[in-house]
């Protein structure tokens, strides 16, 4: 895949370590080569899932993320929705808009929907 035309979300986070651990559970990680040397600032993290999904995490400016009022949201298209749902103890369901999905919140209460088109699911009619 050529990166030309790719769109990658840059998500502000109050606690980069907690956010990175959360997104690790969704299959996103950063290569060891992307980690700064010991003692260097670690305020920007580039994660990928090895399937064409990318997410960058950055330190939030103070006051950007107020608990209960986070305006950010992400949608992760993931073929194995059920496995991700089990990881977060969720129950996905078919929605009227044609997606099999569930919703969770990350440590900063960013809405994260995980889904796959219902008609593409194995065994779909």
TrEMBL record:
Residues 11-112 form the Glyoxalase/fosfomycin resistance/dioxygenase domain. Signal peptide: none annotated. It holds the Pfam family Glyoxalase. This is Glyoxalase/fosfomycin resistance/dioxygenase domain-containing protein. It comes from Bradyrhizobium huanghuaihaiense. The lineage of its organism: Bacteria, Pseudomonadati, Pseudomonadota, Alphaproteobacteria, Hyphomicrobiales.
């Amino acid at each position: 895949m050529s990166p030309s035309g790719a769109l990658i979300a840059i998500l502000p986070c109050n606690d980069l370590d907690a956010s990175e651990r959360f997104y690790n559970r969704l299959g996103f990680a950063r290569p060891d080569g992307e980690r700064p040397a010991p003692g260097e600032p670690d305020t920007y993290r580039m994660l990928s899932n090895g399937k064409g999904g990318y997410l960058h995490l950055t330190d939030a400016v103070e006051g950007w993320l107020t608990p209960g009022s986070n305006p950010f949201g992400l949608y992760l298209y993931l073929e194995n929705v059920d496995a991700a749902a089990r990881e977060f103890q969720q129950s996905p369901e078919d929605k009227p808009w044609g997606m099999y999905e569930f919703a969770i919140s990350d440590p900063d209460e960013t809405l994260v929907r995980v889904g796959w088109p219902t008609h593409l699911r194995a065994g779909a009619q």
